Amino acid sequence: MKRSYLHLILTALIFLSVSQLSGQSFNRINSTKTIMETKDVHYRYIKANGLNIFYREAGPKDAPVVLLLHGYPTSSFMFRNLIPVLSEKYHVIAPDLPGFGYSDAPPQDQFEYTFDNLTKTMQSFIDELALKRFAVYVFDYGAPVGFRLMLANPEKITGIISQNGNAYEQGLSTGWNPIQKYWQDPSAENRDALKDFVALKTTQFQYFEGVSDPSLIAPETYTLDQHFLDRPGNVDIQLDLLKDYRTNVALYPGFQSYFRKYKPQLLAVWGSEDPYFLPAGAEGYKKDNPNAKVKFYKTGHFALETHVKEIGTDILAFLAKLPE
Q1: Considering 42, 70, 91, 301, which one is annotated as catalytic?
Q2: What region holds the AB hydrolase-1 domain (predicted)?
Q3: How far apart are alpha carbons 115 and 242 in whole angstroms?
Q4: Which of 122, 124, 172, 186 has the fewest Cβ atoms within 10 Å of its own Cβ atom?
């Protein structure tokens, strides 16, 4: 009788132990699954302004949103190493602009390639995704698009990260001289003179110039960019955007006025050896906005290719202080 009673107690204890371990294992599996799903990068399309816009998305859906806007001649692919860093705590969204990457690139007679129209498409994009509040990371061409969005949606912007995203004339290097000549005289001769700007040698130049260790530049970066640049009709698309870039410079005073009025939390993370956008462009933010912080990295235009860990760490520290 005693043995039978003891056997029942031991059996019950073993069952409870196994149940607890199974529950813990199940919880661990579920927890791991949640973490993995959070870190996954999803590749999606959405209709915006009548176009199929490709975008990368990662991170918790209920976390603060960070919108990443790429520049020339690249796409959201430039953020492939930054997205995993940010998406552990933030909901990260990185679209390809029209005419770039995997988004639609309609011919010129079907879409006007101006920065106003790129912005119109991105406005439709954020409206379609119902983005109410977000921090915006702007780079190169992404800056005039992001700053136009900023002017139109001041209530949505929680903070600004500018990575070689210019808003000051003193930030333009002499590399812009041939382009400015085209602005002043948009002749066929001056337009043709800019065709080298979309050639492979120039794409590679943008990646390698100012970089102390060229072995850090992944070859698929400039190879993929050039693949899209070489699509039929794309040369004229890009030349149209180069011509229209003058409208961005004309808007610089408006952008600066916004910085003075709203004093947004702003972090400028800048490749100091950029051949197109000089450090003076980064310093300009501090003149208009007491909440602007500037950090330089000794690298070139595509600073994320060589300094993603440092830049990612600085961005996380910045985002942690933003309002939701």
Answers
A1: 301
A2: 64-307
A3: 10
A4: 186
